[in-house]
TrEMBL record:
Keywords from the UniProt entry: DNA-binding, Transcription, Transcription regulation
All residue ranges annotated as the HTH tetR-type domain in the record: 12-72
Keyword Transcription in record: yes
Organism: Actinokineospora auranticolor
DNA-binding region(s), chain positions: 35-54
Protein name: AcrR family transcriptional regulator
Gene Ontology MF terms in the entry: DNA-binding transcription factor activity; transcription cis-regulatory region binding
InterPro entries reported for this sequence: DNA-bd_HTH_TetR-type_CS (IPR023772), Homeodomain-like_sf (IPR009057), HTH-type_TetR-like_transc_reg (IPR050109), HTH_TetR (IPR001647), MftR_C (IPR041347)
One Pfam family from the record: TetR_C_14
Length: 198
């Protein structure tokens, strides 16, 4: 059992290392110019290992996003049972961006934005977003005692996704601001019911 946990952790670490290497190399050279061989070499694995984890470089780019979405869902479930839902969600989301305060991209939001806008990556972003939202919906349903098919957990998960998207978009336009502070501001507003700012 412990061996299985270690094996899964090693797989996850390799998957994330390949994703991070793909992002860094693509930011430096452009996604099309980067080869699978270069990505594998950066992580000290074989090309075959890369292909065991990913069907494409675009899939590798978004793997960190998928992982973050899964961790948010797990963190929502791990929060204290008596904690209000939106407090739990806010803590779960913000924790995924600390301590660095920014997503993978080496502090280059404009490069990350260009990378995510590439057509091959767009399809994978859409798939990753759907996977993350489904996982979060299930976690919210479990936490609130509802069914994942119910409107409530699906709506909460959609609002969380929208909030993340707004904070990320704002950060790419204003990288001087901390992504963590943007996330807190967005989720504090959601938690307060988005009152009229006037």
């Amino acid at each position: 059992m412990a061996d299985e946990g270690l094996r899964e952790r090693k797989k996850r670490e390799t998957r994330l290392a390949l994703s991070h290497a793909t992002i860094q190399l693509a930011l430096a050279n452009g996604l099309e110019a980067v080869t699978v061989s270069e990505i594998a070499a950066a992580v000290d694995v074989s090309e075959r290992t890369f292909r065991n984890y990913f069907g494409s470089k675009a899939e590798a780019v978004v793997a960190a996003h998928v992982e973050r979405g899964w961790r948010i869902a797990e963190a929502v479930l791990a929060r204290p049972a008596g904690e209000p839902l939106w407090d739990a969600v806010t803590h779960a989301v913000v924790a995924q961006f600390e301590p660095s305060g920014e997503p993978t991209g080496d502090g280059r939001p404009e490069g990350l934005q260009r990378l995510l806008a590439e057509p091959s990556v767009q399809h994978e972003v859409f798939r990753a977003h759907a996977q993350a939202q489904d996982r979060l919906t299930a976690a919210i349903a479990e936490r609130t005692g509802t069914a994942a098919e119910d409107l409530y957990p699906r709506t909460v998960a959609a609002v969380v996704s929208a909030g993340l998207g707004v904070a990320m978009a704002q950060w790419t336009q204003d990288p001087a601001r901390s992504l963590v502070s943007l996330l807190r501001e967005v989720f504090d507003g959601i938690r307060a019911g988005l009152p009229d700012p006037r």
